[in-house]
Design goal:
The complex is a heterodimer.
Chain A (H helix, E strand, L loop, with lengths): L1 E10 L2 E12 L4 E5 L4 H4 L1 H11 L8 E7 L11 H12 L8 E3 L2 E2 L5 E2 L4 H10 L4 E5 L3 H4 L6 E5 L2 H8 L6 E2 L22 H13 L3 E4 L6 H7 L9 H13 L15 E2 L7 H5 L10 H4 L4 E4 L7 H6 L1 H6 L1 E5 L4 E5 L3 E6 L17 H12 L8 E4 L5 H4 L8 H14 L13 H8 L3 H13 L4 H18 L6 H9 L7
Parallel strand pairs in A: 3-4, 5-8, 8-9, 11-16, 11-17, 12-13, 13-16
Antiparallel strand pairs in A: 1-2, 2-4, 6-7, 9-10, 14-15
Helix pairs in contact in A: 2-3, 7-16, 7-19, 16-19, 17-19, 18-20, 19-20
Chain B lengths: L4 E3 L20 E5 L7 E5 L6 H16 L3 E4 L5 H11 L4 E4 L13 H10 L1 E4 L11 H12 L2 E4 L7 H12 L2 E4 L10 H8 L3 E2 L3 H7 L1 H6 L7 H5 L9 H10 L6 H8 L3 H13 L3 E3 L5 E3 L2
Parallel strand pairs in B: 3-4, 3-7, 4-5, 5-6, 7-8, 8-9
Antiparallel strand pairs in B: 1-2, 2-6, 10-11
Helix pairs in contact in B: 1-2, 2-3, 4-5, 11-12
Classes of the chains: A alpha/beta, B alpha/beta.
Chain lengths: 498, 296
């Protein structure tokens, strides 16, 4: 007697449908699971057996073999429990109907069904593969319902699930959460006093998708400014939001970020994070890291110079390709990692270079500190801006500050002016593209030629300045890059003269 | 390839001026040629100098270099390096007095500067070849710097700077000591300000140096310019009124662009754009840490 139930494995953000085959044969009672499984799946034997018994069914006292096909695909996790139990029961009970159905869920010993991670990407995969109805843990039902083209049912227990399959009872239909939750309170730009220079740089970065580095003494407000940055960015498209939700689903982090929110994510990992935590990895199949959780949003690295060189080096590929491939012994996985980088750093190890307090660093320390950034990711940072410590009178008093909404209006307009392009903004234009897109006026071209000579701009530095100037012109509503835009862009360049 | 030579006090190459020392070195190792009778001025100061200080040291050295006066310093980071570089840039000759063996490059990052000095000047030390840069060698070598020079200009120094020891040696030897004054709040100028209080001559312009040491004036071609007094406040006509307005607000101390914007009521975008243009014109310099400073 043999039976099949459909479930799903993940490989990066993509799912792979898995057929759970159960065979019951004569012989000494035994329960074997094969199909390149990990420890969690081997332990499923000890969960499934009591779950079946405690749900009021009989576990076959014969030789039970379960195969997870395709058998060469590495699989892990507890999400196959429900499918295994259903396949085993179906092998002896033809009244259970499984047409067009798929199952995800972990079993408790008493037969109840527990939530698992990665339900959203798996539901999307199964929908694409032709599954009509998907049974998931009740807790995961709203998340699974975000996938189009599949009917989602939430099961609280194995018993309820079997009753439904026999046609004896209903299951709760999964409903997606009501339309976008009211935007969580993002810190508003108006909450930051002064810092006009830095705010202008944030606006340009938001409009062109440029990576930005802020330098300044401790306590100047770099972190505060960075946290307001998402409030300048437009809403995500529903597709992009779904992709973001899928990554959070894999990490089991949907509680911190409701799956229907359209606001871009903001991640700020501490510099003590492991490399695997940052770019993805871990034992077994690689989990998405912080850079993937920041996909379609903002990755903020505070104290950029405190991150190890290996960490910063690892960001290079994702910054260029907008995705990250993590190779592990069992498989290489690719996750999206299309994020904007905001870095913050002290200008020197003591933090007071150029500050009234005076710097106490040795010249040698200064050089070492600066080469850390200049090496691996300098090439990907278009804008640098300094954030000075605020004077008492700047913090209290003075004019009202412009709210984020006003800036976001200009950012939206600038982004529309440039059209969607490949969705990465001016920051993604390569040398040839930016030369064409800039349409620099003759005086601007003269200025550019002069800057190469006077400020020792490298070829890369040249294109960086042009990209930023293009965005400044977009914000100003100008078709061609003029002198003023170019001069302003030069001011934010990363290279120092001499 | 120039080879290091050892020079004895009896040799015709021995710098006469070293005889003024109570404890002259017993021998010198030289790499390059010192030109024993050339008039010379030492420019010394902090390793951890401000950008303004570095700029001042380099321009004094440029003036001296183009006037045919030799610049003597210690090849350390900061002021010393700026002094050597300035002299070399002006096509002048410069002598670096080392605290290590003549074949040792210290600090290592000055390898490029070192070979430039060897090509148009001289490295000189009393330490035998291969001597590492021991800490206690440096105060000792300061007396050689002081002895070789007709005058010592201290550009920036903290109260504990080695440049002050050079100034003391110079004063003991009867050499003129000049100090560039600085703000009483600037730590980098606390040492030079102390020197001024104790009787050093203030250095405000090249003329101060020539007045202190008349021999230098006769050595210098009559065309020697006085960059400092000639430059102050003039030559701004070439900038458009909006750019001049910015320069006028900047003064001599480095400021943050936001301060300029607040003072003039200009948007950050406008300030950044004008600063960019000024920097391109060479009138403004961006400093690490995000401040900007006037250079004219």
């Amino acid at each position: 007697m043999i039976a099949f139930a459909i479930s799903c494995a993940t490989r990066g953000l993509a799912g792979v449908p898995v057929t759970v085959e159960a065979d019951i044969a004569n012989g000494l009672p035994a329960f074997t699971i094969v199909g390149l499984t990990d420890r969690a799946i081997q332990e499923a034997r000890e969960r499934v057996k009591p779950a079946i018994r405690n749900a009021g069914f009989k576990f076959p006292q014969r030789r039970v073999t379960v195969n997870l096909a395709p058998a060469e695909l590495p699989k892990e996790g507890t999400g196959f429990d429900l499918a295994i139990a259903i396949a085993v029961l179906r092998a002896e009970d033809p009244s259970i109907r499984l047409d067009g159905l798929a199952f995800l869920g972990e079993l408790a010993l008493d037969g109840s069904v527990r939530p698992v991670t990665g339900v959203l990407p798996m539901a999307r995969c199964l929908a694409d593969a032709g599954t009509k109805r998907l049974i998931v843990p009740v807790e995961n039902a709203p998340e699974a319902a975000l996938a189009d083209g599949v009917e989602v049912l939430g099961a609280a227990s194995l018993q309820a699930c079997v009753e439904y399959l026999r046609g004896d009872g209903p299951l709760v239909a999964g409903v997606r959460d009501a339309s976008p939750p009211s935007p969580a309170a993002e810190p508003d730009l108006a909450a930051v006093r002064g810092q006009g220079h830095a705010k202008r740089a944030l606006e340009i970065a938001a409009a062109g998708g440029h990576n930005l580095l802020m330098t300044g003494p401790p306590g100047a407000g770099k972190t505060m400014l960075a946290r307001t940055f998402p409030s300048l960015l437009p809403d995500l498209t529903p597709e992009a939001a779904l992709e973001v939700a899928a990554i959070y689903s894999l990490r089991g982090s949907l509680r911190e970020r409701p799956p229907t929110t359209l606001r871009p994510p903001f991640r700020a990992p501490h510099h003590s994070i492991s490399r695997a935590g940052l770019v993805g990895g871990g034992t077994g199949l690689a989990q998405p890291g912080e850079i993937s959780l920041a996909n379609q949003g903002v990755l903020f690295l505070d104290e950029l110079c405190e991150f190890s060189r290996q960490h910063l080096e690892a960001l290079r590929q994702p910054l260029e390709e907008h995705s990250v491939t993590v190779a592990r012994a069992r498989a290489a996985v690719t996750y999206p990692a299309d994020f904007m980088l905001i870095g913050a750093s002290n200008p020197c190890p003591c933090g007071h270079l150029g500050d009234a307090q005076g710097c106490t660093c040795e010249p040698r320390q200064l050089t070492a500190y600066n080469t850390k950034i200049s090496g691996p990711i300098k090439d990907r940072i278009d804008l640098v801006v300094s954030v000075p410590r605020q004077e008492y009178r700047d913090i209290f008093g003075g004019a009202d500050e412009e709210p984020s909404a006003a800036v976001r209006g200009r950012v939206d307009a600038a982004r529309h002016r440039r059209g969607e392009g490949d969705g990465h903004g001016n920051a993604a234009l390569n040398g040839r593209e930016i030369l064409a897109a800039a349409r620099a006026t003759a005086p601007a071209r003269r200025l550019l030629a002069l800057s190469g000579e006077r400020l020792h701009l490298s070829a890369r530095g040249f294109f960086r300045v042009l990209r930023v100037a293009r965005t400044i012109s977009d914000l100003a509503g100008e078709d061609r890059v003029g002198e003023d835009a170019l001069a302003e862009a030069l001011h934010y360049r990363i290279e120092m003269a001499g | 390839m120039i080879e290091p030579r050892q020079v004895d006090p009896g040799s015709p190459e021995w710098p006469e001026r070293l005889r003024h020392l109570e404890s002259p070195p017993r021998g010198l190792w030289q790499l390059g040629s010192i030109g024993p009778t050339t008039p010379a001025v030492a420019i010394v100061g902090s390793r951890r100098a401000t950008f303004g200080g570095v700029e001042i040291a380099a321009s004094i050295a440029r003036e001296l270099g183009s006037a045919g006066i030799q610049v003597i310093s210690g090849m350390a980071l900061g002021i010393d390096a700026a002094a050597h570089t300035g002299a070399l840039d002006a096509g002048g000759s410069t002598v670096a007095v080392l605290g290590c063996g003549v074949d040792v490059c210290y600090p290592p990052r000055h390898a490029g500067l070192r070979s430039r000095i060897v090509a148009s000047g001289c490295l000189i030390t009393e330490e035998p070849e291969g001597t590492p840069p021991f800490k206690y060698n440096f105060p000792k070598r300061n007396r050689i710097i002081a002895a070789l020079a007709h005058a010592v200009v201290v550009v920036e120094a903290t109260e504990r700077s080695g440049a002050l020891s050079t100034a003391r040696w110079a004063a003991d030897l009867g050499r003129e000591v000049l100090a560039v004054p600085g703000s009483i709040r600037s730590r980098q100028s606390s040492g030079t300000n102390l020197l001024l209080r104790d009787g050093a001559r203030p250095f405000l312009a090249m003329a101060d140096l020539f007045e202190a040491v008349p021999e230098l004036r006769s050595a210098a071609p009559t065309t020697a310019l006085d960059a400092f007094s000639a430059r102050a406040g003039s030559g701004l006509e070439r900038f458009s009124p909006p750019l001049r307005e910015i320069l006028a607000r900047m003064g001599t101390q480095p400021v943050h662009p936001d301060q300029v914007g607040l003072a003039l009521g200009l948007s950050p975008a406008l300030v950044a754009s004008r600063l960019g243009a000024l920097e391109l014109a060479g009138a403004v310099m961006s400093l690490p840490g995000g401040l900007v400073a006037r250079t004219v």
